[in-house]
Amino acid sequence: MEARLNPFASQTMSKFLKHLIAANKVIVESTLPFATQELVKLRASQINGCGFCVDMHFKDAVHGGEEATRLNLVAAWREATVFTDAERAALELAEQGTRLADAAGGVTDEAWANAAKHYDEEQLAALVSLIAIINAFNRGNVIARMPAGGYRPGQHA
Fold first, then answer.
1. What single string gives the DSSP state of each residue in 13-40?
2. What is the pLDDT of residues 25-50, one digit of tens each?
3. CA angle at residue 62 from 39 to 139, to 5 degrees?
4. SS3 letters across 88-120
């Protein structure tokens, strides 16, 4: 598969991506755990069908020390025994925040309350921001049809 657009050759898209990457850096530097960040990015990317981001976040997570077993089970996190209650709450929030069009009321109060049991205000802010930004990256990559498989950890750092 070939990309429809080279985002780095486009002046507009290149500038836009620089802003997204800068915004993402704020989240990376937050107190939201690295593992939680990568699990959320992976799950949202799976839901959105963004192969480029699934590849990237799987490889970045492994490079950061995450276990492949946990990453392989992200799509089935409800049935898996390898996630903490906090990670489950983050994954639920990520799913509901990614599938907004599927739910008349958006994110449920129950999902929010569950996440709030495990994360402080700043971590919740980082989590909400992370869900928003990974969805933006996913949409851009899916629209441009960015191919998956060739990412190397740290390539876009």
1. HHHHHHHHHHHHHHHHTSSS-HHHHHHH
2. 999 999 999 999 999 999 999 999 99
3. 45
4. HHHHHHHHHHHCHHHCCCCCCHHHHHHHHHHCC
pLDDT tens across 98-122, in order?
999 887 778 999 999 999 999 999 9
Contact 149, 56 (CB under 8 A): no
- Is the Cβ–Cβ distance between 20 and 27 less than 8 Å? no
Paired tokens of 66:
């995450």
Q: How confident is the model at residue 96 (pLDDT cuts 50, 70, 90)?
A: very high
Taking the C-alpha atoms of residue 56 and residue 154, their distance in angstroms, rounded to an integer, is 9
